[in-house]
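Lab meeting, item 3. Inverse folding demo.
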């Protein structure tokens, strides 16, 4: 049961950070749309997509529990970005788009190192 709780917590945390990263980078480059809509919040309720955050992960989790292995993934509501508000739209939107996946890679490294050092110590 602890494993299931950890899987859900990690999925929700990762999706929330991913979406906030898009919004923060958009804000850095001049688009305050996400901020005005309250989407730069770390409150997971502001990012929940019914299908991508609840239904699909629960279905995949049930398959995981029945089979003993599998993959669980999901998504959140995309953070709104108004490309016209960006200072240099073509360049800046590239950075906004990369912010989410790069945040996931950073999270993987950070928690991977924490896991590594907790095993060593």
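The presenter then showed the designed sequence:
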């Amino acid at each position: 049961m602890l494993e299931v709780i950890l899987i859900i917590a990690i999925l929700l945390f990762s999706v929330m950070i991913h979406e906030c990263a898009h919004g923060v980078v958009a804000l850095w480059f001049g688009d305050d749309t996400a901020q005005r809509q309250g989407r730069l919040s770390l409150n997971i309720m502001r990012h929940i997509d019914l299908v991508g955050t609840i239904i699909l992960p629960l279905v995949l989790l049930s398959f995981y529990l029945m089979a003993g292995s599998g993959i669980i993934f999901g998504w959140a509501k995309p953070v709104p970005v108004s490309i016209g508000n960006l200072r240099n739209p073509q360049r800046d939107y590239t950075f906004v788009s990369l912010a989410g996946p790069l945040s996931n890679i950073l999270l993987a490294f950070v928690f991977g190192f924490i896991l590594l050092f907790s095993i060593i110590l």
